[in-house]
Design goal:
With 692 residues, the protein is of the alpha+beta class. Helix content is 30%, strand content 27%. Helix 2 crosses helix 7 (199-229) and helix 10 packs across helix 11 (403-418).
Length: 692
């Protein structure tokens, strides 16, 4: 028997999914081990192998989404990093785009650069914008820099020379000199991760890659060794930020492409789940223990961006708000993230306002009801007070809880200061969290020119099905889908993802007359893409090449990415359609400029998880029968609410109010709503038009 394993390490739980031939899957949730996430990963895998009666030799692939890269940046525990740049450009990293995220926020301060100014060194060299050598590289400058970095205890160095996107010879030579003079240094040249125009974006991306290199390499090496001890010799794939998989070596060398690793798995799974349901266009709503995330899937494909900012682990990727974090110009799923997860802490601020998040209790100590020492209320505690959650145990009975601890925490820290009852305070906590999550959805819909009312909402994550209907009401959405194995869906989605390698070639020129250059560049990138996929075992019909072009109006600094159309006229028309959809108008008389050609080289496997044939293990669908009073409306008495195991939905539609319990999540069906099987293991909840 051949099995595949998907692993998603979150801030609170580590989710593991074991996929067996025939569509059967087993699931496990283990508390994340922040000191070394690999411990929780191996513990979860070992538990599932034991349940399935398998040994490690039966596993043919492990797909892993990890928060190691993002946490390294968030906690500022990356390598002591240096920067080597062209003379005169030492402060590009600090100057950035000269933008602030909020014009009137006088308390805002710019994020500290990951490279202190002392370790940002200049060398004499200059490449022209046309790729010609204006000033040769001074190799002695590079050797002196290597000696300085060693003396200072620097561990990793990023190299970014001006205009290296047009000619990388100087960068490559400098990298070779550094590796020769200081073999202990981990070197990242910008041409190896981002051969694109714009020196700030290139510098920032190269620096982030260097900063997280030791942490990612160390973690992946330790994880691989632990898996070998468990008897697994299968290859390990790492989820990339773009929703595809890359091999272990690629993740070790270019970890900047995996900073958004975990959340991308859920979106990749949604892209595979939607079309069989007749819902190729979806809003993906993922609420975990630490944060809530939103993304959209259009035409069965995740919506992607070519750049995003990482800031404090939480981001709303507006095109119009920049400067609050570290710029990563890499392809990524367009995800908005807010600090409103199940473990997000509620408090009353100095002005007497109720605030939820972004501080989180995580998985250890966790919400107050866990009884592990945290006495402050969280969103989970609010749900416990209101009756939405099982007051005795969560995660299929494996996690004991105490509802009375939740009530005490809410009463002491929110209800008493505001002069409210515990139930009223809990309703307020839940409402603030819902509004925050709706804001994240608006960031990837309304701010992208999409009307959320035209889309169905797919709820995933442990908390998504708990809040999905109320969030949908805030946005006017009438159809909510709860994914199969929703609480571990990001891990399951990784098993449905394809291998994906990203390539880019700068082609700065007017679009008119650019077609011959586009064809030549397409041929070069296609060769590189096939070589990369062949190294991972993909060839022939298992290879798909998706080309796209970055276009802008002449004189603009930013642009849009559109799929490559046949011919310049068709390409311009596609650009203007997207421009009009995004900004509400198009400057049809203006000249259009080609900036970059992009390639996503996709490797299609034959063992990807098929949601249409999914068969959940009976334990995953188990839950309680009974009745529990639930507070659905503020100021109204609790409503007697039926409790059913999720498996009960197979017997027919369920009228609200009702709560469906399963191992990995709790599905709330409010009064006036009806839940029925939605296909492929989904729960479909239809809202009354008046409610929506």
């Amino acid at each position: 028997m051949r099995a595949r394993i998907g692993v998603d390490v979150g801030g609170t739980f580590t989710d593991v999914v074991l996929s067996l031939p025939g569509g059967r899957i087993l699931v496990n949730k283990t508390t994340t081990t922040p000191h070394d996430p690999g411990e929780g990963v191996v513990a979860g895998i070992a538990t599932l192998l034991q349940e399935a009666g398998l040994d490690g030799a039966a596993v043919e692939e492990v797909v892993h989404g990890t928060t190691v890269a993002s946490n390294t940046i968030l906690q500022k525990v990356g390598a002591r990093t240096g920067l080597l740049t062209t003379r005169g450009f030492r402060d590009v990293l600090e100057i950035g785009r000269i933008r602030t995220p909020g014009m009137f926020d006088l308390s805002w301060s710019k994020p500290e650069p990951l490279v202190p100014r002392r370790w940002r060194l200049e060398v004499s060299e200059r490449i022209g914008a046309d790729g010609a050598v204006v000033q040769p590289l001074d190799e002695d400058d590079v050797r002196e820099a290597a000696a300085f970095f060693l003396e200072e205890g620097v561990e990793a160095v990023a190299i970014c020379f001006i205009n290296s996107y047009s000619n990388a010879a100087h960068e490559r030579r400098a990298a070779a000199l550094l590796r020769e003079a200081a073999p202990s240094l981990l070197v990242t040249a910008s041409c190896e991760v981002l051969p694109e125009i714009k020196e700030y974006e290139r510098t920032s991306t190269a620096v982030v890659n260097a900063y997280i290199l030791p942490a990612m390499r160390g973690y992946l090496s330790r994880l691989e060794a632990r898996l070998r001890e468990l008897g697994l010799s299968a290859p390990v794939q790492v989820m990339a930020s773009n929703g595809g998989m890359v091999g272990l070596e690629a993740a070790r060398d270019r970890p900047v492409f995996a900073v958004g690793s975990g959340p991308a798995g859920g979106v990749a799974g949604a892209a595979r789940l939607g079309p069989p349901l007749g819902a190729a266009d979806l809003i993906v709503f993922d609420m975990g223990g630490t944060t809530a995330k939103a993304a959209i899937v259009e035409g069965g494909l995740p919506s992607l961006v070519t750049e995003y900012e990482f800031r404090d682990g939480i981001s709303t990727p507006s095109r119009f708000t920049k400067g609050a974090g570290y710029m990563l110009k890499v392809p990524a799923v367009d995800i908005a993230e807010v600090g409103s997860g199940g473990g997000s802490i509620a408090r009353v601020d100095a002005g007497g306002l109720l605030v939820v998040g972004p501080e989180s209790a995580g998985g250890d100590p966790g919400p107050a009801c866990y009884g592990r020492g945290n006495k402050r209320p969280t969103v989970t505690d609010a749900n416990m007070v209101l009756g939405f959650l099982n007051p005795r145990a969560l995660a299929g009975g494996s996690l004991p809880v105490d509802a009375e601890l939740s009530r005490r925490a809410v009463m002491q820290h929110v209800a008493a200061p505001l002069g409210l009852s515990a139930e009223e305070a809990a309703q307020g906590i839940r409402q603030v969290a819902n509004v925050n999550m709706a804001r994240a959805i608006r960031a990837v819909t309304v701010e992208r020119g999409k009307d959320p009312r035209d889309l169905a909402l797919l709820a995933i994550g442990g908390g998504g099905p708990l809040h999905a209907v109320e969030v949908a009401r805030l946005l006017g959405i009438r159809r909510v889908l709860v994914a199969p194995a929703a609480g571990v869906f990001s891990a399951a989605g990784m098993l449905a993802a394809e291998a994906a390698h990203e390539f880019v070639e700068p082609l700065l020129r007017p679009l008119d007359g650019a077609w011959p250059a586009l064809e030549e560049a397409s041929s070069r990138l296609a060769t590189a893409g096939r070589v990369a996929l062949h190294a991972e075992g993909y060839a022939g019909e298992g290879v798909e090449l998706r080309f796209a072009a970055d276009l802008r109006y002449l004189g603009q600094s930013g642009g849009l990415t559109v799929p490559l159309e046949e011919g310049e006229a068709a390409l311009r028309a596609a650009f203007e359609r997207l421009y009009r959809e995004t900004f509400g108008y198009a400057a049809e008389e203006e000249a259009v400029e080609l900036v970059n050609l992009r390639l996503s080289a996709i490797g299609r496997g034959t063992t990807r998880l098929d949601f249409g044939a999914l068969s959940l293990d009976a334990q995953a669908l188990a839950g309680e029968h009974g009745t529990r009073p639930v507070h659905f409306t503020r100021g109204a008495p609790p409503v007697p609410t039926r409790l059913l195991p999720r498996a009960a939905l197979d017997e027919g539609a369920v009228e609200g109010p009702a709560i469906l319990e399963s191992y990995d999540t709790t599905v709330v069906i409010p009064p006036g709503c009806t839940a029925r099987p939605g296909g492929a293991g989904c729960v479909l909840i239809e809202l009354d038009p008046i409610d929506a």
